[in-house]
Backbone:
């Protein structure tokens, strides 16, 4: 099974209350903090550490950021790629993934950034393709409002085409670097892109040669119907959140069928579902840890994070006030989260309290609590059913969650033959069982269209 560490270059994990945990390190502004995480993940033979990212702090709730800073709700957000370079220096095999927005960045910049990271890490980089989702990000990046949901994905399709086109610009043997002849490279083996689309234009030539794995791995995590189609078309590693085993089995099969419908090999697209393991040497110890973790989240955490994710000010309604149909239809953020809540509460319209309860925002969702056997049993069932190809390990505190998982659960998974005992190669593509990318291998489907 593939294992991914879900990271944040911020003051907490994706669980906003994690900074309050008594065992969480507080030096999150230091390189050593992230390098320790990287060393732990590499010791556990994880495929990669991956940074989620947003381009604003949560300030949609009450249209104010004061509560965000006061309560430490993901208010510190550093550049994750810079942090990854620190982690790369402390490791030699761990894959290194980061988010970069197709809505607010330019494709040439993203292509150069991640191809450079891939070279500097000897082929361990991955780009998580996101479209951004709230007005705070739009305002920070100089836009009056957020683009409509499907338009963001239409632009993202062009964005990925441009990035892949630039990554293909250099042939593998374009560099010569022969001092005796004075010839640095073969100019005929570096190609200009000259891309002209509806949303994007980019000329080239690109300025970074090919890397040990050809180009970085593409990650995606779209959960809407449009997002899933985007993932099926482009992604090599997909992050999902399947709340139940039966639902996960169904969604996993449906997504793999979508990949096949795009003319791609479903086995070449790995699906990893989010899990919150709370583990220890024994189940009793793990249950004690879980009880402590449940005391950490505050109601304001959920309200702030819901406002951010759904791009709607939850301070504008009372806790038990129902949403109107018009308000629900106007939500342009994480529509899959909105739809989940609406389905769970139907036929009545949901209230703010329903959104807090059903979404689980700000709390560990369906944590797997137990000793090595109990946690490994749960992961094995999901993996062999199958409902996924691996797991995104989400931390309740840092670095403790990763250290406890590597200490207690990884040896049990290795004993069962479910997880590698060592890396089989140096690149992230090696870890994922993917071949080195071949120039133009992504163009076949586009040509067929």
Residues:
């Amino acid at each position: 099974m593939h294992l991914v560490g879900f990271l944040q270059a911020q003051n907490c994990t994706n669980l906003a209350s994690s900074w309050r945990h008594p065992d969480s390190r507080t030096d999150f502004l230091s390189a050593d903090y992230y390098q320790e995480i990287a060393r732990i993940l590499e010791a556990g033979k994880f495929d990669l550490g991956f940074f989620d990212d947003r381009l604003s702090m949560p300030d949609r709730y009450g249209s104010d950021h004061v509560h965000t800073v006061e309560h430490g709700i993901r208010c510190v957000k550093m550049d994750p790629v810079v942090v990854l370079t620190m982690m790369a220096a402390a490791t030699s095999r761990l894959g290194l993934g980061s988010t970069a927005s197709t809505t607010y960045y330019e494709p040439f910049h993203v292509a150069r950034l991640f191809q450079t990271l891939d070279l500097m890490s000897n082929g361990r980089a991955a780009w998580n393709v996101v479209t951004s989702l709230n007005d705070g990000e739009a305002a920070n990046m100089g836009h009056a409002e957020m683009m409509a949901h499907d338009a963001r994905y239409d632009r993202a399709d062009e964005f990925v085409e441009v990035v892949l086109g630039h990554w293909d610009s250099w042939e593998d043997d374009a560099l010569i670097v022969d001092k005796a002849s004075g010839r640095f490279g073969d100019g005929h083996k570096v190609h200009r892109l000259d891309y002209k689309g509806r949303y994007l234009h980019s000329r080239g030539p690109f300025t970074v040669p090919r890397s040990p794995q050809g180009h970085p791995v593409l990650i995606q995590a779209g959960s809407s119907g449009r997002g899933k189609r985007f993932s099926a078309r482009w992604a090599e590693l997909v992050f999902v959140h399947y709340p139940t085993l039966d639902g996960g089995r169904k969604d996993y099969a449906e997504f793999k069928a979508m990949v096949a419908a795009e003319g791609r090999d479903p086995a070449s697209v790995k699906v990893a579902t989010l899990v919150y393991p709370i583990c220890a040497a024994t189940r009793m110890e793990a249950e004690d840890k879980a009880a402590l973790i449940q005391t950490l989240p505050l109601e304001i955490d959920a309200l702030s994070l819901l406002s951010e994710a759904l791009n709607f000010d939850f301070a504008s309604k009372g806790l038990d006030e129902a949403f109107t149909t018009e308000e629900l239809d106007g939500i342009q953020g994480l529509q899959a989260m909105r739809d989940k809540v609406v389905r769970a509460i139907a036929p009545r319209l949901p209230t703010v309290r329903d959104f807090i309860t059903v979404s689980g925002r700000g709390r560990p969702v369906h944590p797997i609590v137990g000793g090595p056997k109990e946690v490994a049993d749960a992961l094995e069932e999901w993996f062999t059913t199958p409902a996924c190809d691996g797991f995104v390990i989400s931390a309740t505190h840092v670095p403790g969650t990763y250290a406890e998982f590597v200490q207690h659960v990884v040896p049990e998974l290795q004993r069962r033959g479910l997880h590698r005992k060592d890396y089989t190669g140096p690149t992230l593509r090696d870890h994922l069982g993917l071949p080195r990318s071949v120039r133009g291998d992504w163009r076949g489907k586009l040509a067929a269209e």
